[in-house]
Each structure stands twice: as structure tokens, then as C-alpha cells.
Write a structure and sequence with these properties.
This protein has 328 residues and is α/β, with parallel strands linked by helices. The strands form three sheets. It has a six-stranded mixed beta sheet with strand order 1-3-2-4-11-5, with helices on both faces. It has a four-stranded mixed beta sheet with strand order 9-6-10-12.
């Protein structure tokens, strides 16, 4: 397994599509996460696991921190066979696959038992099928957070009224309906751009998971943070279907087994990382407020209805995925 540096990215343009002339199978994976993020570290462990299970027959090469492709380039790059695999965050699919937003409906998918039941469920299968329709094959759902944080520098965002007029990092048009309902002005952007936007005042407030807030050093540019079970986020690993189908059966099975193991490991890893991140943010000087159940109910009453309504209107299959999630 090789973690690629920026100097190595140019090699992507020189390699043959979907493999190389060497006997070993090359499995290149691009993602946007910084090295310190716990999911980035889980991907490194997945790569090592694949290589161990195949006795080195599969060479997994990781291109992290958007070195090879930007987040919005991952889907076409994998679908066209420019790279074998990529890791994307569910909400970045936006209108392309609106059903992917189901886990980010405010206060709808944040129960741990529901998250633990998701891998291999009907809900996961429905989303896998949607991804395959778009030319990529999903092989792992990597649970990333159910602990969101609203960060700010001028004042803490504790009540719904505190969001009035605040320019905040948004996720996408659908999920941002909840922020708009609270009076905020969301601006959707990938996580890699938020720190600079906060630092330069392009936005007033951040919205991310607690682990990313620490790994991306939000505490350097934001004084306050409100931790809330606002939504759940998954990064997911997908591959080019033709490449995957063309692998020797033993290699494909090894990758699938390693992906399943990473899925399961992502749950306790994310839970422990979130708790540690809260402690680290406080040690770094950020003033945190942990949302109470009563405060969560107040936020949900304002933010969930418009997002749920917009979600159900976004796709003929929205009701089916809602029902599948409610059965978890």
C-alpha cells in the first residue's frame, strides 16, 4: 500500500486506464480527506488489509487530500475508468442521486442502533442500486459522524434564533432548507474549503462533524461550537464496475471482505473519535456547548419539516427509502 504525495499525482496521467503492465492489480483510490481525519486513517487500514488478504497481489494506492481529483470530479473519474476507486461524502451527490441525502435529514438518522443496522440493509441496497445506475459500484459505507458541530466566532449558536442572518457553511440545496428555515444564509462548499472561508470571513459559521472540526483545526478560526445530533454522514467507497467485475475472483472477494470489515470498524472508530475530538477541541480552547434533548427537539421542529418535505418531493423513490430507514 502506498500513500501518494503530490509529486506522485502526475503519474495518474501516465498510467494506463484501469491498471498497468505489471502483473499485480493496481487499485487507486482518491479522496478529499486530510491525513489526520479518522476516515482517511481507516482507508489506509483498508488498503493494508486488502494487500494482506491478497498476499500483495493487489497494490492499493491512496491519493488523499484532493491530490488527484477534487470532490466533484470523483464520480466521472471512476465512471469513465480514469481511476479505479474513490471515496465521496453522501451529500455531495446533490440532485444527481437525491436519495443519498436521506441520512442527512436533520435529526432523522442519528440513533446509533439505526446506524449499526444500516450495512447490508434494504436502505443500503436501495442506495447501492442508485449508485450503480450512475455508473459506479459501491463497496463500503463508512460511517463518519452523527455528532455535528455548529462553529462560530462572534457568539455561540445555541438557540434557533441565534442563526438569524448567519452566513454558514451549507451542504447542498436540499439539506440547506433546514438552515434557511432557521434564518441562516447557507453557502454549500466542500470541507476542504471551509477553513479558509471562515478565516477570511466569507462565512460566519461552520457546519461539520466534530472529528473534522478538530482535524481541520477549526479551533484556530472559531471560538464557539455547539455539538448536536443534527445529521449522520457517510463517506462511501465506490469503484468502476467493469474493473471490479474483471478482477480475479479471489482478489474481488478479498476487496469485498476488507470493505465489509472497514464498514463494521467505522462505527466504533467514529464513536470513539467523536468523543476524543470533543475533548481535544476543548483543550485547544474552543468553548463548546452540548445540545440538550430539549434543544435538539426545538431544532428538529424547525429544521426537519422543510427538509423532509423537499426530500420527498425530490424523487419518486424518496418515500421508499424513508420507509426503509424507518424499518432499521
Amino acid at each position: 500500500m502506498k500513500r501518494k504525495s503530490t509529486l506522485a499525482v502526475a503519474a495518474l496521467a501516465l498510467t494506463l486506464p484501469l491498471g498497468s503492465l505489471h502483473a499485480e492489480t493496481v487499485f487507486r483510490i482518491s479522496h478529499q480527506l486530510p491525513p489526520a481525519h479518522h476516515i482517511a486513517q481507516l482507508v489506509e487500514a483498508f488498503a493494508a488489509d486488502v494487500e494482506a488478504r491478497t498476499d500483495g497481489a493487489v497494490d492499493v494506492q491512496i491519493f488523499g487530500a484532493s491530490q488527484a481529483y477534487k470532490p466533484d470530479q470523483h464520480h466521472p473519474a471512476v465512471a469513465r475508468g480514469e481511476i479505479e476507486g474513490a471515496i465521496a461524502v453522501n451529500f455531495q451527490w446533490g440532485n444527481t442521486i437525491p436519495e443519498m441525502n436521506v441520512v442527512t435529514i436533520p435529526y432523522f438518522f442519528t440513533d446509533l442502533a439505526r446506524i449499526e443496522a444500516f450495512p447490508g440493509s434494504k436502505a443500503a441496497d436501495l442506495l447501492d442500486a442508485k449508485l450503480l445506475e450512475k455508473g459506479v459500484e459501491n463497496i463500503a459505507w463508512l460511517y463518519t459522524t452523527r455528532q455535528s458541530i455548529f462553529t462560530s466566532s462572534k457568539r455561540p449558536l445555541i438557540t434557533v434564533e441565534d442563526f438569524e442572518g448567519v452566513k454558514i457553511r451549507g451542504l447542498n440545496k436540499l439539506v440547506d432548507e433546514g438552515l434557511v428555515a432557521a434564518g441562516a444564509a447557507p453557502a454549500a462548499m466542500p470541507g476542504s474549503e471551509v477553513y479558509q472561508a471562515l478565516q477570511t470571513g466569507v462565512i460566519d459559521a461552520g457546519l461539520t462533524d466534530v472529528s473534522a472540526a478538530f482535524s481541520r483545526k477549526y479551533y484556530e478560526v472559531q471560538e464557539f461550537g455547539t455539538v448536536a445530533p443534527f445529521f449522520t454522514v457517510y463517506f462511501h467507497l465506490f469503484v468502476n464496475p467493469a474493473w471490479y467485475a474483471g478482477l480475479p475472483e479471489a482478489e474481488r472477494a478479498a476487496i469485498a471482505e476488507a470493505a465489509d470489515a472497514a464498514e463494521l470498524e467505522s462505527i466504533p472508530l467514529t464513536e470513539s473519535t467523536a468523543e476524543a475530538a470533543i475533548d481535544e477541541l476543548q483543550k485547544a480552547g474552543m468553548k463548546l456547548h452540548i445540545q440538550t434533548p430539549e434543544e435538539s427537539a426545538a431544532f428538529s421542529a424547525v429544521m426537519q419539516p422543510p427538509v423532509m418535505e423537499a426530500f420527498k418531493a425530490s424523487s419518486p423513490d424518496a418515500e421508499a427509502i424513508i420507509e426503509a430507514v424507518e424499518q432499521l
